[in-house]
Amino acid sequence: MKRGEMETPYMRCLNNSISRFIHLMSCQTSKGMPTQNEFEGMAIMLKHLKPVLDEIDDEKIASETNLWKECEDLDAYINSAREYMERWSPKMSRILSVLQSEQLMKIIRSSSLEICGILCRLLRTSTSSSGFAGVQVCTEIMHCVQELQSWQPERISGHIEQAMRSKNDDNLLSSDEHLAEIVESLNLVSNQELLKESIAVEKEWVKIHANKSNEEVDQINQIVDLLALIRTYMLKNGCFGTMNGVAVPSYFRCPLSLDFMLDPVIVASGQTYERSSIQKWLDNGLKICPKTRQHLSHTNIITNYTVKALISNWFQENNLKPPPSNSDTRNAVVVDDLSAPDIIRTDSFRCSVHSSDSMSMSRSSLEVADAVSEHTYAHSRTHSAVSSCDYMPSSTTEISRISEKVGEIMSEYSPINSNSLSGRGSQSAKTRSENGSSNYSRVHSLSLSDLGHDETTTSSHVDEIVGNLKRSSNNALQTAAAAEIRLLAKHNMENRIIIGKCGAIIPLITLLHSDVMITQEHAVTALLNLSLNEEIKARVAESGVIEPLIHVLKTGTDTAKENSAAALFSLSLLEDYKLKIGRSGASKVLVDLLARGTVRGKKDAATALFNLSICHENKARIVQAGAVKYLVQLLEPNTGMVDKSVALLANLSTISEGRLAIAKEGGIPLIVEIVDSGSQRGKENAASVLLQLCLNNTKFCNLVLQEGAVPPLVALSQSGTPRAKEKAQQLLSHFRTQREGASGKKK
């Protein structure tokens, strides 16, 4: 059959495959698949591609081999995604599912963009547009490209890869951050879920080793290692509760499920496990020791009386009564923090495993927005930068998702190391922020020439563009030049350096005062993209950009305002500029964006304000600008910004003006509510706020008590993160001291 004769049926097949996938997702009931939401987002994206394909004149593309091949490939990818969805079950490994499904989504997105790119070239070279329905098709293609570019699926696989890489590099701090995100994102937050994942991975390991596929064997071995890392991480960071207030020694935890071993048994390899956990493992036909990876010569298990005696002695020494042997009763008695749904994350923050101040600082400023809540604060502050360090939660992966708009930059939130301004942290933040390949950016206004700006440009080409930037008499040329720089700097690190050194910064800053909104928008986004490079960031800051950015925050489009706030945040990562930005009047316009901006704008504003609040002098400015009123309003659960807001309030509560404003705006009841029912990160920051209020003002202390804070604080002191427990215990101790003092006076 000739190519032209095959064209129509294959185009029809692709459209049919898209329709079937969209229909599947519309009928799909959630099965708990880790990437369910991302697949639903992909279906929405394909809806935008379908009308474009419907308009294609098959006769016109008969000779377009590349387009033909891409459509054929996309058809296969979409069918693979549909089949994957249909066969997925909760018994499958979540980690492996994420790696497989996210790879599928990545190539579907890439192939769809390639198809749009080929169609764009056809439009530009065609002498007649009749075969493509003219302007209408052109508009549909541009809209489709914008939607595909703006689709930013959560990339859990990135954390999986980074965790393994950090392990190999012995970078334990960075590894912990990614492990926290993995545990939280995949809901491996209880002993039983961890055991189920371990069994699922081991079954895959057995099957893949039987098939002897080297590539798959290497991947599954890495996943096995990753699960071992996760167990170690959970034990190390105290992700478990206590038994009647007494911490359970880690060596009494089953190395497979991390269950408390009330019935320890020995297997053929000599390792000891909790009977119910290892029995489930063996019942699934698995004959490899989970810990040593040795083949078990037999599946008999015998009681480990030595360990059992040690556990019995531990109960006696701590005046504890051993629970009944029934496993259900046992699980009910042993308080396990991992069963808490929010223990590892909320919104976009990660594990609230505030293990140490150093970890709390491990978040890069690009994480602030979402990080605003927990680690957020820690993320970019240095030891000397934050006066309220003692009261700031040091979550580790929480902050992690801050304005991820890499590409268009920092638009959602992604983990970046937080010692962003010095030493290794700075290098880490730089490397990650410039790695556009793993972060999809949103595009607000896109020209057809966007497809292809990832290539490295030349100095001569940039010189020509900069010349057009300076042509004040020709706004069309200026706008096109700003748009091209924006795109060239979007993903390519080398392009940012070339552009920054070719004199583009000053002309771009000048365009921030342009009366043409789209010109201003292109210019501010270009500057934001350029600032992702640490060297160019400094050049941008030194070129007098702060006041023009504030002008954009006052006059620009929603997108321009968002990116202006993100640019101020990026510049505030330079330690010297936190104070300069604070003194420039930026706090007021950022608070205005926090109050009246889009959802994304509010997040970007919160991110920038948080980073500014790391500088003690800026805290009063932020409070005086009226931030507390809006932050209190954002404590309502339906805003989606509870954790970010309470995190910033935790910072502002370290000054008297902040505490007074929190009480005046009615924040105390909402903050007490967060201690009771918020995320782990939110609880920790809320406890920090209450601690500041109560230690510094008796009246505030009484208001906190009147709101019924004691019961949730007692619960937090027993089952919260280490820092949350510390704050809760300090508060309860303070309440007792106040009560005893009051009793003494009466006597």
UniProtKB/TrEMBL annotation:
Pathway: Protein modification; protein ubiquitination. Keywords: Repeat, Transferase, Ubl conjugation pathway. Residues 737-747 have a biased composition (Basic and acidic residues). PANTHER family: U BOX DOMAIN-CONTAINING, U-BOX DOMAIN-CONTAINING PROTEIN 3. Residues 414-442, 724-747 are annotated as: Disordered. It comes from Spinacia oleracea (Spinach). This is RING-type E3 ubiquitin transferase. It catalyses: S-ubiquitinyl-[E2 ubiquitin-conjugating enzyme]-L-cysteine + [acceptor protein]-L-lysine = [E2 ubiquitin-conjugating enzyme]-L-cysteine + N(6)-ubiquitinyl-[acceptor protein]-L-lysine. It comes from the Eukaryota. Residues 247-321 form the U-box domain. Its EC number is 2.3.2.27. ARM repeats lie at residues 503-545, 585-627, 626-667. It is an enzyme of class 2 (transferase). SUPFAM superfamilies: ARM repeat, RING/U-box.
